[in-house]
From TrEMBL:
This is IS110 family transposase ISBcen3. The lineage of its organism: Bacteria, Pseudomonadati, Pseudomonadota, Betaproteobacteria, Burkholderiales. NCBIfam families: transpos_IS110. InterPro entries: Transpos_IS110, Transposase_20. GO terms for molecular function: DNA binding; transposase activity. It comes from Paraburkholderia fynbosensis. Residues 84-164 form the Transposase IS116/IS110/IS902 C-terminal domain. GO terms for biological process: DNA transposition.
């Protein structure tokens, strides 16, 4: 993903020197490059065209590989009963579900969901000064990749929660009203991890009526 984005950013940077405004979306960028190459009036030199062709072919190859990996992950998640159950959670898709299972296994090494969330670095660090307890951000222990996936999923959930009235949405919006959105995202990712622990270890489905507790 990083390599693909780097190629896309290089194309955007180089074409901007010619006054070409490149699309932000990868799909649109892939479509735009051939159009630029075929346009004899856009002022691109032959040398630059050869460079652009190479970058475009690299981008296309990386993008195709990412789509293939996404397809394989989706198939893996669909074939695993635990991964299928985890996808009942909002913010958890095939990638998050399979990555979480690969990291925690059957999760029985954790006594409870709080321990599993802490192992993923989703527990706020705390410090006491003058009798007051301060939150210092997340501990960032454990698997950074899984932690980032859960937090990104939580951010997407928060956007949806603004338009919903279920218990979990109301819970997270109360946090958003009092704290920074990033704090709310971590809190929601923490809750997602704790619910996931219960679903994995007990073999249960997601119970939305209990999610806010």
């Amino acid at each position: 993903m990083e390599q693909r984005n780097a190629k896309a950013n290089r194309i955007r940077g180089l074409t901007s020197d010619y006054g070409i405004v490149a699309p932000r979306e990868i799909v649109q960028l892939r479509r735009a490059v051939p159009v630029w190459l075929e346009d004899i009036n856009c002022g691109l030199s032959d040398r630059f065209r050869r460079l652009l062709v190479g970058l475009w072919e690299d981008l296309r190859s990386l993008d195709d590989r990412i789509h293939e990996l996404d397809r394989e992950i989706a198939e893996l998640a669909a074939s695993d009963p635990v991964a299928r159950r985890l996808q009942q959670l909002r913010g958890v898709g095939p990638m998050v579900a399979t990555a979480l299972i690969a990291t925690v296994g059957n999760a029985r090494q954790f006594a409870n969901g709080r321990q599993m969330a802490a192992s993923l670095g989703l527990t706020p660090k705390q410090n006491s000064s003058g009798g007051k307890e301060r939150l210092l951000g997340i501990s960032k222990r454990g698997d950074a990749y899984v932690r980032c996936l859960l937090i990104h999923g939580a951010r997407a959930m928060i956007q949806m929660a603004r338009r919903r009235t279920d218990a979990l949405s109301l819970w997270v919006m109360r946090i958003v009203s009092k704290r920074h959105p990033n704090v709310a995202a971590v809190a929601l990712a923490n809750k997602t991890a704790r619910i996931a622990w219960a679903m994995i270890t007990r073999g249960t489905d997601y119970q939305p009526e209990l999610a806010a507790y």
